Amino acid sequence: MNRLILKGGRVLDPASGKDEVTNLYIRDGVLSEPFAEERDVQSMDLNENIWVCPGMIDSMVHLCEPGTSARETVETGTQAAAAGGFTSVINMPGNSPPTDEVHRLIWVQERIRNKAQVNVFPTATISRGMEGKLLAPVGSLFKAGAVALTDHKHCLENNELMRRALEYASMFDIPILDHCRDTSLSSDGVMNEGYWSTVLGLRGWPCIAEEIIVSRNALLAELTGARVHCLQVTTSGSLRVLKEAKDRGVSISCSATPHHLALSDDLLADYDTSYKVSPPLRIESDSEALRKAAKSGVIDFLCSDHSPYCVYEKEVEFDYAPFGGPGLETAVGASLQSLVHQQSMSPMDWVKLWTINPAKYFKLDKGTLGVGAAADVTVINPDCEWVVNPKQFCSKSKISPFAGRALKGRAIYTIVNGNVVWQSSDKDRNE
User: Fold this and answer.
1) pLDDT classification of 425: cutoffs 50, 70, 90
2) Is there a cis peptide before residue 97, judged by omega within 30 degrees of 0?
3) How confident is the model at residue 96 (pLDDT cuts 50, 70, 90)?
4) Which is catalytic among the residues 305, 349, 383, 428?
5) Mean pLDDT along residues 190-216
6) Helix count (H) and strand count (E) of the chain?
7) DSSP 3-state assignment of 142?
8) CA torsion, points 207, 209, 210, 216, in degrees to nearest 10?
9) Does residue 1 surpass a pLDDT of 80?
10) How far, in Å, CA of 368 to CA of 371, rounded?
11) CB 67 within 8 A of CB 381
12) Which SS3 state, helix, strand or coil, does residue 193 take?
């Protein structure tokens, strides 16, 4: 019998509204009532300043298998997830080849079973080959275990195909996740269109390229009744459209990333490719709008957009570098610093963004500390101050937009099905 007690931490469970300093009990991989006696029990002694949360869920992670395992693998990516405090991740389908057929989804699921260190829930593509021309087999992919459909970093710009995709998806109540970008407006832009793109002589990616697709998605969601999720919104204009649609009862939602909450486009002044992400970093007023929207509830949940690349891929001229970077191991610190320490968001509301909100949206049996639930738990020291050193990442990807930055807040234990899969250094736990 495997029994564990987490003693004296501040238990934050948004699903039940519980916020109190107490003990949490785990028996044989599930959360349990207090034990009658505590012999032969492993215990962790915490304190009232340490948060004990439901296992965190990252809704946008790229594990890169099959086809691009030099960047990341299921094994290394889920090790990075555990190190970041995540007990569950939603895996994107942009592999090589992409997950657009049932047999490819089955291959990914088998890889997850054999190599994953945390829970991994796969998605599949909306269109075949992510080309935006023909629909993938929506029903078959859903029945085979895909929790959502998305064309990864490729926006489905064909309005007719998007409408049909939503109509099919609504039959199975499976969400469509869209990376909102009208390429006829953004073309080959590599950074936010504005002052800094002009100064640096780099092609701009305007805010309107995102906002037009967000508006299109709101209209199609209203027409079809399907669930549409806008991945990584970045502009105040997008947030305005989303709020208005939500106020009308449209089934549209959105997420944002810690790097868009915390960083702005002036950081590209030295042509540093670690800041080249998709969508691009916007101006500070957009970042501030995102922080306020996360606090007000317009943003439904957060995601890291863990998009790993090899060092040699990023260490090239800015135009040729790929968009993205590692996000799993900095997400807790960056989002805590942006929202709780700077924006005065309550700890409970912050925990919601990473736990029960994505769990409900993707219909996962996760995100709660209720008795009988799987013992997926994230233990966080919100006051731990640390400096990001990508060389110490578990991820294969070592070029981070937060490299060298001081963050406040860090996961110190990650527990999956009752097993401790990650613990930080003594310094981080006791600081």
Assistant:
1) confident
2) yes
3) very high
4) 305
5) 98
6) 15, 18
7) helix
8) 140
9) no
10) 9
11) no
12) coil
pTM of the complete model beyond 0.70: yes
C-alpha 31/C-alpha 396 separation (Å) is 33
Q: Which of these, 206, 208, 211, 209, lies nearest to 192 by C-alpha position?
A: 206
DSSP label of 174: -
Residue by residue, DSSP assigns 315-364 as SS-GGGSPS----TTTHHHHHIIIIIITT---HHHHHHHHTHHHHHHTT-
* 305 in active site: yes
Joined together, the tokens standing for residue 348 give 């409970």
Q: d(Cα 75, Cα 77) in Å, to the nearest integer?
A: 6
Instruction: Find out whether 351 and 53 touch, Cβ atoms under 8 Å.
Output: yes
Chain centre distance of CA 249: 25
What is the Cα–Cα distance from 53 to 120, expressed in whole angstroms? Answer: 19
- Element at 56 (helix H, strand E): strand 56-61
167 token code pair: 């109509």
- Report the alpha-carbon distance of residue 417 to residue 158 in Å, rounded: 42
Q: What is the distance between the alpha carbons of residues 331 and 94, in angstroms, rounded to a whole number? A: 21
Q: How far apart are CA 265 and CA 91, in angstroms?
A: 28
The angle formed by the CA atoms of residues 272, 341 and 57, to the nearest 5 degrees, is: 75
Pairing of strands 377-387, 406-416: antiparallel
- Phi then psi dihedrals of residue 224, to 5 deg: -95, -20
188: which 2 tokens?
């080959």
Phi, psi dihedrals of residue 131, rounded to the nearest 5°: -95, -10
Burial (CB < 10 A; 0-12, 13-18, 19+), residue 64, is: buried
| Three-state SS letters, 83-103 | HHCEEEEEECCCCCCCCCCHH
pLDDT tier, 294 (very low <50, low <70, confident <90, very high otherwise): very high
End-to-end CA distance of the chain: 33
| pLDDT surpasses 70 at 424 | yes
User: How far, in Å, are 78, 397, 415 from residue 52 at the CA level?
Assistant: 21, 29, 11
Quote the pLDDT of residue 2: 85
Q: Are 302 and 374 in contact (CB under 8 A)?
A: no
Q: Which residue has the tokens 């099919």?
A: 168
Q: Residue 23 in contact with residue 7, Cβ under 8 Å?
A: yes
Higher-confidence position of 117 and 431: 117
Torsion, Cα of 84, 85, 89, 91 (10° steps): 10
227 near 176, Cβ under 8 Å?
A: yes
